[in-house]
Each structure stands twice: as C-alpha cells, then as structure tokens.
Automatic annotation (TrEMBL), chain A:
CDD domains: TM_PBP1_transp_AraH_like. The chain crosses the membrane at residues 41-60, 67-84, 90-109, 121-140, 160-180, 211-231, 243-260, 267-285, 291-308. It comes from Xaviernesmea rhizosphaerae. InterPro entries: ABC_transp_permease. Pfam families: BPD_transp_2. It comes from the Bacteria. It is found in: Cell membrane. GO terms for cellular component: plasma membrane. This is ABC transporter permease. GO terms for molecular function: transmembrane transporter activity. Keywords: Cell membrane, Membrane, Transmembrane, Transmembrane helix.
TrEMBL record, chain B:
Pfam families: BPD_transp_2. The complex is composed of two ATP-binding proteins (LsrA), two transmembrane proteins (LsrC and LsrD) and a solute-binding protein (LsrB). It comes from Xaviernesmea rhizosphaerae. Keywords: Cell inner membrane, Cell membrane, Membrane, Transmembrane, Transmembrane helix, Transport. CDD domains: TM_PBP1_transp_AraH_like. It is found in: Cell membrane. The lineage of its organism: Bacteria, Pseudomonadati, Pseudomonadota, Alphaproteobacteria, Hyphomicrobiales. InterPro entries: ABC_transp_permease. GO terms for molecular function: transmembrane transporter activity. GO terms for cellular component: plasma membrane. Its main location: membrane. This is Autoinducer 2 import system permease protein LsrD.
Length: 313, 320
C-alpha cells in the first residue's frame, strides 16, 4: 500500500507506467502495434516532441512559458536549406548558423522578459507572430527541400538499427537530467521558479538566468526543428505549429507544475511518448477529423486527471 | 467615466484604476485620429458601423478572456468556442428552431461548455491553461462534426440588423459593458476580483472560490459563443475553424489593456480598450497598404512595445 502511494506521488514514474500499460494493451489488441518497426517509429516521432519540450520544461520549471517553440522550429526548418553554403560538404556550417539563430531568438525572448519586463507568455507570443511574418518575407511561403548532409544523416540514418533522432534524444535527456538535478544552474532555475523573490535575495541573478534559460529553450527548439527537417526532407511555413501545444502538453503530462519550481525532465520523456502513442492509436481508429479531435482532447484530459494534478493549495 | 456625482471614495478609486491606463488611452486616441485622417469615412454612420462591427467580436472575446484572467485563470479555448458558436448559429437558425431558438442554443452551449470547463478546473484542481488546451481539441471536434465544411445559413435580416449600416453592434457592446458594470456591483462580481487577487484571503472571508470560478468560466463561455454568433451573422454562414485567430488575439488584447496573468490586476475597460487598440492597429495597417506579412511583424513589435513601455515607466518611477 505504501508503495502504491509512493508511485502515485511520483508523476514521472506514473507516466512511465501509463505508457507501458498503453503499449502493452495496444500491442496485445492491435495487430502491428507491437512490431519493432512501429514502436521505433513512435519513438522517432516522440524524439521531436521530447527535444522541443526539453527547453519548454526548463522554462516552465522557472515559472514561465515559451509560446515561440513552434515558430522557432519552423524558422530553423526553413532557414537551414537557405543558409547551408554549397562549399561545405559536411553541412555542419549550416547547422551551426541555424542553431545560432535559434539561440539568438531565445536570447531576444529572454531580453524582453528580463530587461523590458514583458510577461514571458506575451513576449514569446509576440515573437512567434513576428517570426511568422519574417518567415514569409524571407522564404516567400514555398516549401524548401533539404540537401544538407548532416541534417539528412540526423533524420534518416539508423546506427545499429536505432534512429539517429532517438540517439540524439537520449543524449539530450542525459544532458537535461544532469543540468536540472546535478548542476548549480539547474538548482538556480528551480529556485527562481519556486520563489523568485527569495532566490533573488539569496543572490541568484534573475537577469542572467532568464537569458540563459530562454537561449537554451531556443537552442532545443532549433535542434528539434533540424531533426524534424531531416525526417521530413522538406521545410515549409507552419511545419512547427503542432509542436507548440504538444511541447506544453508533454511537460504538464510529465507532472511538472505549470506554476514553476516543481518537476523534472524525467516526466517529460514519457509525456512525449504518451502523446505520440495517443495520436497513433487515434489514427488507427478510422474516424472523421472531428471525432479524432474529440478523442485526442478527451484522452489528454483523462491523462491529465491521472498525472497532472496540482497540489491542493 | 462620468459618475462624478458618486461619493469621493468611489471617485478616488476610479481615478487610481484609470491612472495606469492613461498611456493606453493616449495610444488608442492617436491611432483613432490616424485612422480618421487616413479614412475619413469612419466619421459617417455607415463607416462607424463597419468599423465597430470589425471590432465587436474581438471586444467580446477579449472580455471573455479578461474575465478569466481577472479571476486568476486563462483559457486557450476561445477560438474554438467562437467557431462552435458560429456553427451552432448557422445550423440551428435555418431549422425549425428559428432565430430565437438559435440564439438560445448558442448561449446554452457557451454556458454549458464554460461551466463544465470551470468545474473541471475548480473541482479537480487542474491547471486552467492545460484543461482549456485539451478542451479546445474537443470543442473543435464538435464543431467539425456539426459542420464539416463551411456552410449553414443565417437569415439575411439578422445579418443586416447586426452587420448592416447601423451601429447596432456598438450599442450591443455598450449594453454588455453596462451589464458588466452592474454585475461587478453584486457580491458574485466582486468575488471574481477577490478570488483572483488573493484566493486564500477571499476563501477565509467567505467567498465560495470554486463556485466563483465556475461562474466566471461559464460567463466567459457565453461571451465567446456570442462572438461566434456575431461572426456567423457577419459572414452569413458558419465555418468550423473561423475562430482560430481569436485565442491569441484575446490574450494579446487583454494584456495590452493591462490585465495581469496572476489575477485581480486590471480592469475590464482596459481590456476593451486593448481590443480597440489591436483592432484599430490592424485596420490602419490594412489601409496603409501593409502586406499581411508586414502586419504580423508590426503587430509583434507593437504588442511588445505597448507592454514594455508602461512596465519600464513603472520601474523608473519606483526607482526615483
């Protein structure tokens, strides 16, 4: 009984168990769901959400929210083919350039939040609107095909049968968990999220940490954009839009408090897998778009009731 | 505000609540002036009517959003609710229910969905932002099932009445604002602010926090669904995704109007002013011949500016 209670109080573990349960039931009842290729495909899709949600997790932990994730993903996916120079056979120059732009966008978000005192939700929302306009100006609204070898390698190759995107996600996860739980900067983020005033009075610099935080969020969104582009082979305006809400949903399903200060990336990982699995299951059921949308919403709500509850205040 | 005859305390409070909004009033005034110079047609009855009709749905959804933000919540389901309102209006008014039945159906839908969302948020203690996010998928789904493709029918006379050459929309907005003013004078209306500003304090003073939250979600749902009804009358038909831009615009307008995210901070008049600013801005850029793309860029910049400048000024004042 004690053990059950401990599990219920541990949202990341609970979400993991939920994923295992859904996979088990679906694997036994649906032909082809449990096939290695299908599960690998699910993980590959979850990797994009998981990496985009890495930055979102940090921002939410510090009590903010980043509504520009989708726009940054689109920006990287569209700019990469345009910025990759032809003389570079590895394609790494283009990758570095685009990631620098993503970090720059994040820094601008952070600067707006900390220097101009614009609430993060409105700063990142305005940034998303701004980027949406800039993109059409730059790219003219047509789809671009990627030829950058580094990005294609990331999206298409399978070392030892494991997709490179999933490998990247594992690396990001290890980095994130170390950053949040083993590094001083993670402790500072959590402290600022839990009680900004107390953290500031204890000598934690809000300005510096906000800048770093949003730069990281921009970086991870950019990385997710590159992976998505590599998997898709094509970038177009709007490619990143679905990832804004799914990144937030993955964070919250993982038990991280939307109010900040409490949570872990260990919950976001199963959160992302759960979202992708839910979508896959709904696609299996042959329903009209309306019913699919209703099922998705209801399932998120149901999952939320299990794992996303705020503590009584 | 013109209640100069009221007590001095009331006047003082109103002055204090207006103080933070002076900058906003000036910016809105400047934009309106620019608009009148660029497009003198606004000064005729017909031009004024058209202008207010473009503003009216945004004003309604901004009120719906601000109502929740004042109570310490937020909703991401505004756009889908507008779409659903439009779809229900367009599917019921042509049938046996007629126009009165259609209007009732729209109001009942908004009220029901809002109250259900509020009950989930308040009683199960789930974060509003994510419940309404999930809710937006469900509501969009319902709208898509009721009307998979744009269509349906709104009687011509209703379209002419609401979106013709008479300022009916503006008068309706004044009526709704007057109703809000009266509602604020009731214990329930006051409780929305109180529960948003300090939930624990309000609870200890006997405010039924949960019930207040459910009521605010329900009222917000009605306002958003009515916005959808108006949009359906404007376009003469229903469209299951027509409301999409309203979600973010309602948040932007409310924040432009000085409504805070943490509850209890801000005023409804500020929010309505914010929606007017956003609406005028879009109109002015349209008449200046900005391509839609540049409008996005300018909108992003102006929103940040309009929020950042007062925040910086307040800091500067506090530092002195």
């Amino acid at each position: 009984m004690m053990r059950v209670k401990a599990i219920l109080r541990n949202p990341p573990l609970l979400t993991f168990l939920l994923v295992a349960l859904v996979w088990l039931v679906a694997g036994l009842s649906l032909r082809g769901f449990g096939a290695y290729g299908h599960l690998r495909y699910l993980l590959e899709l979850a990797a994009v959400i998981g990496i985009a949600a890495a930055g979102q997790t940090l921002v939410v932990l510090m009590g903010g929210i980043d509504l520009s994730v989708g726009a940054v993903i689109t920006v990287t996916a569209i700019l990469l083919p345009l910025l990759s120079p032809a003389w570079d056979p590895t394609g790494l120059v283009g990758v570095a350039l685009v990631l620098a732009i993503a970090i720059g966008i994040g820094l601008l978000n952070g600067a707006g939040a900390t220097f101009l005192k614009v609430p993060p939700i409105i700063m990142t929302l305005a940034m998303a609107t701004f980027l949406q306009g800039m993109l059409v100006l730059v790219a003219g609204g047509s789809a671009v095909t990627v030829q950058n070898p580094a990005v294609l390698l990331l999206g298409q190759s399978r070392p030892l049968g494991i997709p490179a995107g999933v490998v990247l996600w594992v690396l990001v996860s290890i980095g994130m968990l170390l950053l949040i739980h083993r590094m001083p900067i993670g402790a500072r983020f959590l402290a600022l999220g839990a009680n900004p005033l107390a953290a500031r009075l204890s000598g934690v610099s809000t300005t510096r940490n906000t800048l770093i935080l949003y730069a990281l969020s921009g970086f991870f969104a950019g990385l997710a954009g590159l992976l998505l582009l590599g998997m898709n082979r094509q970038g177009y305006v709007g490619i990143g839009d679905p990832y804004l809400l799914t990144s937030i949903a993955a964070v919250v399903l993982g038990g991280t408090s939307i109010l900040g200060g409490r949570g872990t990336y260990a919950g976001t990982i199963p959160g992302a897998i759960l979202l992708v699995t839910t979508t896959a299951l709904i696609t299996v059921v042959n329903a009209s778009p309306g019913w699919r949308s209703i099922m998705f919403g209801t399932l998120i709500l149901a999952l939320l009731m299990i794992s996303g509850r705020e503590a009584r205040r | 505000m013109t209640q100069a005859s009221s007590s001095r305390l009331y006047g003082a409070i109103q002055r204090r609540r207006n103080r933070g909004l002076v900058g906003l009033y000036l910016v809105v005034g400047a934009f309106l002036l620019l608009y009148a110079v660029l497009f003198p047609g606004i000064l005729t009855i017909g031009g004024f009517s058209k202008f207010t009709q473009n503003w009216f749905p945004l004003a309604l959804v901004t009120m719906a959003q601000a109502l929740l933000m004042l109570n310490g919540g937020i909703t991401l389901a505004i756009g889908p609710l507008v779409s659903l309102g439009a779809v229900i209006a367009a599917t019921t008014m042509g049938s046996a229910f007629g126009v009165p039945g259609g209007i009732l159906a729209v109001i009942a839908t908004g009220l029901g969905i809002g109250a259900a969302t509020g009950a989930i948020v308040a009683l199960l203690r789930l974060p509003a932002i994510i419940v309404t996010l999930a809710g937006s998928f469900i509501i969009t789904g319902v709208a898509l099932i009721l009307l998979p493709r744009p269509g349906g029918f709104v009687p011509g006379w209703l379209s002419t009445l609401l979106a013709g050459h008479t300022p009916v929309a503006f008068l309706l907005l004044l009526v709704i604002l007057a109703l809000w003013k009266i509602f604020l004078a009731t214990p329930l209306g006051l409780a929305i602010y109180a529960a948003g500003d300090n939930p624990v304090g309000a609870f200890r003073s006997g405010v039924p926090i949960e019930r207040v939250k459910i009521v605010s979600f329900a009222l917000s749902g009605v306002l958003a669904a009515l916005g959808g009804l108006f949009v359906a009358a404007q376009t003469g038909s229903g469209d299951p995704i027509i409301g999409a831009p309203f979600t973010l615009n309602s948040i932007a307008a409310a924040v432009l109007g000085g409504v805070g995210f943490l509850g209890g901070k801000g005023t409804m008049r500020g929010a309505v002013c914010g929606s007017l600013l956003l609406s005028v801005m879009i109109n002015v850029m349209f008449f200046l011949g900005f391509p839609p793309v540049a409008q996005y860029v300018a909108q992003g910049l102006i929103i940040v500016g309009a929020v950042a400048v007062p925040a910086r000024l307040a800091l500067w004042r506090a530092a002195r």
